[in-house]
Amino acid sequence: MERRWFKGDTHLHTTNSDGSLHQYELIDYCKKAGLEWIIITDHNYNTVEKTYSSDGLTVIQGQELTGENGHVNVWGTKVPFEPPYDLSDIEAYKKITEKSRKDGATVSVNHPFCSNCPFRMDIDAFPMDCVEVWNTVQHSDNNKALAWWVKKLGEGIKLGAVGGSDFHRDYGPAKILASPTTITHAKSSSADDILEALREGRSVVTNSPNSSMIYLTVEGAELGDSIALADGLTGQITATKLHAGFTLRVYNNDKLIYQHKAARYEKQHTAHFGIREKGFVRAEIDYKLTPPLKKLLGFAEKNFLTSRGVTPPETADELFWAFTNPIWIV
Question: What pTM did the predictor assign?
Answer without folding.
Answer: 0.97
